[in-house]
Amino acid sequence: MKKLVPLIFLLSATPAMAVDSPITGQVQPKCSVWTETAGVYGHPLPYKLSTVPADGGVPASIRIDVAQADYYKARFTHPNSFSSSPTLNDAVAWTGSTVVGQVSVSDMSAYEAAKVTYNNVTEFNLTLAGSTWFTVASTAQYGSTKSLPAGNYTALIVAECIAK
Amino acid sequence: MYRQIIIALCLCTSLNAHEMTPAYPKLESSYVDGVSVAKLKLFNRRSDVSWYEIGVFTSDWKPVPFASTSNIIEVGYNKRKLFDVYIRSKDIAKAVYICTESKVFKGKEQVTLVSSRICSKIKQNK
Question: Which residues of B make CB contacts under 8 Å with A?
């Protein structure tokens, strides 16, 4: 008890030291391009490669997150040539599409109706903050129903986020 | 409710993103006379990509001459990189976008590769 009393006194006399420790952060317009699924070509017919599920393929899924509304537009270019393939002696007919998939804000569904398509490019005006999933499909048909040579085929999708 | 859970799951599981800030970089005077500089930051969360190409473009996507430490920069997975883009004063008026584009390797399978590109718009001094 004799030792405890001075100890309590000393502790109560010690000044409490408080230092402000601020946490800083910055919110700014930002766009992130997430490549969630790289597409895979199915080979339903000898002359056809397709990412459409009905053809045994997997379409590419790309998510775009925007932190602030109405600062960016998204642009997707589906392939119109192979980036690598065996030697092809005939023309390849390319088709493709980009559609809005899942959305984090229900009003983003309107992006689909408002999209602008030209050549192999599809543009979306990202007027709302949040995440939007885009599904990009691609189909290649070789010659006039000619069999594609055996080998590996790759094609490139470009997903862009452009400040407005 | 389910949508929020799905989004949260996706945010936790997928780690393949490309980010660049600021959206509107400002050109400032550099230490070289007649050359302005914009400072940008790239964040690579794409595990499949470690190289990005820098480009400067006009409003109709024509390339504009610029200088940086390298046109193609290496950014490790989950790493940030600050980089400077130098533009000559005579090119400033036509320079509109500064972009970074991921460089993907040719695949060995029957796949579609996804190249991501983010473009910031240069804030012009009025």
Answer: 3, 6-7, 10, 14, 16-24, 45-46, 48, 97, 101, 104, 106-121
